[in-house]
């Protein structure tokens, strides 16, 4: 019950649940309000349906619903009175009979409260709506406001240079971006974090040891310790990692062009403030003011908060990289047996169970695709595994963590880089963003109608996915392990800026040396490793004990060739390949009846003799000889001439499918353009075929041979043209409307759900009044989940809408990444020969298991295989894209299952309404194709008549002249 109450409060009163907006840099801390903007269309349409709802909806809409609800609520209120009377009567009897207030079955607390509260919710107001209905409408309007906030957040991100879906950057461009400055900064950050965590853990261990000694009245914390030692003994070791916040530093110094933050970065009032910078410094340049000026000057749609986010983008990116690397540093330190003694507690702590002094479990090394460790950067260095020098098997890392942190930096910076790129190009300044202000004003309800605009703004940016930041200044970041070791003198004395740290360790430098060894390997190698550099990836891999140090891991991890974006450069290729395998046809000898003849006493089979001689010996031999000489020649000639129209058709199919093979183009737009191409060609082909027929007839002798071949291939072309027109009509006229239709039908589902909620509201109040049931809501408890769905449905539709656009790209990339592997079985390798003639033995045992991916299917099956491969690819593409947009209705229907709610069906039902327009468009396409065929037949008939008259005039001109004269 408590969980339900908490869920209701969180859902219905989100302003109380979320106090401040801290999502963006430079936020003023203002509270979030879910009140919809004044121009929100959905509130207007709600007013059209429900009219005035006290304090929630206003306007000049019809009050017919309120009038009807006034009567309906009075009837329900009467039922409520009956339930109250029933409750009073039964509770009195139960009290008298069982000697307990209201009896044992009914709660003496909740039943009176529910009866009173439920009846009050049923009282109609002047507008006709009861209090429960007014509350439900308030929830609905708050849900509208929440959806508007989600929609505005998406538009704001797009407005400042973001995209809906972004192809992954080339990993090598990511790691080498800004001349390696970003990766150099990341390396310094990770080393500094390991240093900070090492100091934090060892200081905590030392401090706890001193406290244990103090309990025995001994140790440096007793008997009048120095001020420095007293500060250490009385102040717990703080969190070193969380003391560094890049965003906070730049927020506090927004006008500085060069920024820096020491590691760690404690406040001046902390006893640990003197340690600031002992593990290094993160340095970076603020985003250049001249670029900010260019953006503000050329892109007028940006507001102040969006400009502030652009200014802070580099700091936000660095902070994200810092958070990513902090997890790696934590694992490294926790894996060190000396810095984390608990890691060996209760287990085998012998030397043989550890990889090295600084690593219990090895970090791993990069591997080639051949299964051997990488020695230097190579395109085949694609995996990660255990170092062969140890018997340890499972590596601690997977080798992608460091590059992942750098990629996160680049990913956060990409919107700002895109924004500046667009601001520098006059043709794309504001035109792709003109719709944003209007879309925000109209609210979430009209989101579906802006699909083309969203596709346009996404297409203008996605091609820039390989941009990297420049002049970041991160290469000036540093992490020098000698800084902390220099505080220790050789004879136990302390010196320098960090001498107080030396005093805390009682002059023992074993801890700081061990930390330095974890970073650079100085305690496990003859000489420590140098900090990695990233001007180019040309270093050698680190193997052995050095591979499980911070610098060794960074060096090795930067060599792994990550896959980048699958499906971008692997779109399947289609090629018409006429691979003809002739199965020779031979007449086989026949057996004949005896045809017995008897001459005197001599009997012989005369019929069999003549049959064998004339048929088996003479006819079969001559016929098979002729077939062996002529059959392949005739077939080759016929198929060669047939290949001309087939190759032409293949080029059209290939050109059409090339639209949907462009991975950076919005799939819906690509399908629409492909459909336009198919429709135009299919309708123009009739004219081309007519001209070919006329030309072939007019050319002497040539036409006699060619025209029958054209007539032979015509039914095949017509069948494929019908398919082309059908696909074209669907993709050109239905697919572009699909996102809008599904979203619009989804809004209809929401309106239906709102109407249902308003009708059910007094019934829910009646259920609360009923004495049966448990808790605060009684019989109305299920209404909480349903009302939560009504509240969240608009916001989930927006999330599903944006996610569907991203998913449509991703599923196409998935298809592209794997389709080629399968299609080669049917059509063979597209790079192979276009023509292939061979002869088959016809042995079924050899053909049944044949798999030849160089030639694919042969004979006519090979010709059909080209077109059906494209058809399968296109249909997979269309299906994947159309199913992606069902997310718009799927999420609102299904999400509440995760907390026990029943799945809704209204969204799925409305999404099926789009199938009816699709059917009508497909039927129209089929009818158009049939009409085009009829036009072709009529034009061909007229053309043939004209050709015959022309031929007749050429062959006997005199007769025609006389006939004309006679007329």
UniProtKB/TrEMBL annotation:
* Primary gene name: dotA
Question: From which residue to which does the signal peptide run?
Answer: 1-19
- Pfam families, alphabetically? DotA (PF11388)
Name this protein carries in UniProt: Defect in organelle trafficking protein DotA
Question: Lineage in the entry?
Answer: Bacteria, Pseudomonadati, Pseudomonadota, Gammaproteobacteria, Legionellales
Q: Which residue ranges run through the membrane?
A: 41-57, 69-89, 599-626, 633-653, 685-710, 717-742, 748-769, 790-815, 861-880
Q: Which organism is it from?
A: Legionella birminghamensis
Which keywords appear in this protein's UniProt record, sorted alphabetically?
Answer: Membrane, Signal, Transmembrane, Transmembrane helix
Q: Which InterPro entries did the record assign?
A: DotA, DotA_TraY
Q: Does the keyword Lipoprotein apply?
A: no
């Amino acid at each position: 019950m408590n969980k339900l109450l908490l869920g209701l409060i969180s859902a219905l009163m989100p302003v109380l649940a979320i106090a401040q907006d801290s999502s963006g840099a430079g936020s003023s801390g203002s509270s979030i309000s879910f009140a919809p903007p004044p121009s929100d269309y959905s509130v207007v349409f709600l007013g059209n349906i429900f009219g005035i709802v006290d304090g929630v909806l206003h306007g000049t809409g019809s009050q017919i619903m309120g009038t009807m609800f006034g009567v309906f609520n009075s009837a329900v209120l009467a039922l409520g009175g009956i339930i109250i009377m029933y409750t009073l009567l039964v509770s009195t009897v139960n009290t008298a009979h069982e000697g307990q207030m209201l009896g044992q079955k009914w709660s003496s607390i909740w039943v009176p409260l529910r009866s009173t509260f439920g009846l009050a919710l049923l009282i109609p107001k002047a507008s006709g709506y009861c209090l429960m209905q007014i509350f439900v409408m308030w929830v609905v309007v708050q849900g509208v406001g929440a959806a508007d906030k989600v929609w505005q957040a998406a538009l704001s991100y797009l407005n400042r240079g973001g995209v809906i879906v972004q192809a992954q950057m080339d990993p090598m461009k990511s790691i080498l971006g800004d001349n390696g400055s970003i990766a150099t900064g990341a390396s310094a950050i990770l080393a500094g974090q390991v240093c900070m965590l090492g100091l934090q853990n060892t200081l905590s261990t030392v401090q706890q040891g001193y406290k244990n000694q103090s309990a025995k009245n001994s140790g440096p914390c007793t008997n009048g310790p120095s001020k420095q030692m007293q500060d250490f003994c009385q102040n717990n070791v703080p969190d070193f990692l969380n003391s560094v916040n890049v965003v906070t530093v730049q927020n506090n110094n927004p006008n500085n062009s060069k920024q820096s933050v020491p590691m760690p970065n404690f406040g001046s009032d902390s006893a640990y403030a003197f340690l600031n910078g002992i593990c290094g410094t993160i340095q970076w340049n603020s985003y250049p003011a001249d670029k900010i000026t260019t953006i503000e000057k050329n892109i007028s749609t940006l507001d102040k908060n969006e400009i502030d986010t652009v200014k802070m983008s580099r700091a936000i990116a660095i902070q994200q990289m810092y958070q990513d690397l902090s997890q790696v540093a934590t694992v490294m330190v926790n894996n060190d047996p000396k810095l984390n003694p608990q890691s060996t507690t209760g287990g085998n702590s012998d030397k043989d169970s550890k990889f090295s002094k600084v690593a219990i479990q090895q970090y791993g090394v990069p591997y080639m695709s051949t299964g051997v460790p990488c020695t230097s950067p190579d395109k085949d260095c694609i995996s990660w595994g255990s170092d062969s020098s140890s018997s340890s098997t499972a590596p601690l890392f997977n080798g992608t963590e460091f590059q992942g942190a750098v990629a996160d930096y680049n990913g956060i910076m990409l919107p700002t880089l895109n924004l500046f790129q667009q601001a520098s190009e006059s043709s794309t300044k504001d035109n792709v963003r003109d719709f944003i202000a209007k879309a925000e004003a109209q609210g979430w309800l009209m989101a579906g109608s802006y699909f083309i605009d969203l596709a346009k703004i996404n297409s203008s940016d996605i091609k820039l996915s390989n941009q990297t930041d420049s002049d970041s200044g991160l290469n000036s970041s540093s992490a020098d392990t000698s800084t902390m070791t220099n505080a220790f003198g050789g004879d136990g004395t302390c010196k320098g800026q960090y001498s107080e740290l030396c005093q805390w360790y009682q002059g023992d430098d074993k801890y700081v040396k061990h930390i330095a060894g974890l970073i650079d390997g100085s305690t496990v190698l003859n000489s420590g490793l140098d900090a990695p550099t990233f001007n180019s990836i040309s270093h050698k891999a680190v193997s052995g004990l050095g591979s499980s140090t911070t610098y060794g891991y960074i060096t090795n991890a930067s060599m792994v060739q990550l896959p980048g974006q699958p499906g971008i450069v692997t779109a399947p290729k289609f090629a018409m390949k006429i691979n003809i395998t002739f199965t020779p046809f031979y007449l086989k000898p026949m057996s004949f009846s005896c045809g017995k003849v008897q001459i005197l006493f001599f009997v012989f089979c005369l019929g069999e003799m003549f049959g064998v001689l004339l048929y088996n010996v003479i006819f079969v031999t001559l016929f098979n000889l002729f077939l062996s000489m002529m059959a392949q020649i005739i077939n080759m000639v016929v198929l060669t001439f047939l290949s001309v129209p087939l190759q032409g058709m293949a080029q059209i199919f290939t050109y059409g499918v090339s639209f949907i093979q462009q991975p950076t183009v919005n799939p819906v737009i690509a399908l629409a353009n492909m459909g336009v191409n198919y429709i135009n060609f299919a309708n123009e082909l009739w004219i081309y075929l007519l001209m070919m027929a006329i030309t072939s007839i007019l050319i002497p002798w040539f036409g006699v041979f060619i025209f029958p071949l054209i007539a032979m291939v015509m039914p095949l072309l017509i069948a494929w043209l019908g398919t082309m027109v059908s696909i074209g009509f669907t993709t050109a006229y239905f697919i572009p409307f699909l996102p809008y239709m599904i979203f619009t039908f989804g809004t209809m589902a929401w309106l239906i759900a709102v109407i249902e909620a308003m009708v059910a509201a007094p019934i829910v109040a009646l259920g609360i009044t009923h004495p049966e049931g448990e808790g605060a809501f009684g019989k109305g408890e299920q209404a909480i989940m349903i009302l939560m769905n009504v509240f969240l449905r608009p916001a989930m539709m927006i999330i599903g809408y944006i996610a569907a656009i991203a998913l449509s790209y991703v599923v196409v990339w998935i298809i592209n990444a794997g389709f080629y592997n399968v299609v080669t079985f049917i059509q063979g390798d597209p790079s192979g020969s276009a023509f292939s003639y061979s002869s088959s033995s016809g042995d079924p045992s050899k053909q049944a298991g044949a798999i030849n991916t160089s030639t694919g299917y042969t004979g006519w099956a090979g010709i059909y295989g080209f077109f059906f491969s494209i058809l399968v690819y296109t249909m997979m593409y269309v299906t994947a894209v159309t199913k992606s947009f069902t997310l718009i209705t799927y999420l609102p229907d299904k999400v509440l299952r995760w907390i026990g709610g029943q799945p809704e069906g209204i969204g799925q039902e409305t999404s099926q309404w789009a199938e009816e327009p699709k059917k009508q468009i497909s039927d129209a396409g089929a009818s158009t194709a049939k009409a085009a065929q009829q036009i072709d037949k009529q034009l061909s008939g007229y053309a043939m008549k004209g050709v015959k008259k022309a031929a007749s005039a050429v062959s006997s001109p005199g007769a025609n002249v006389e006939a004309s004269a006679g007329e």
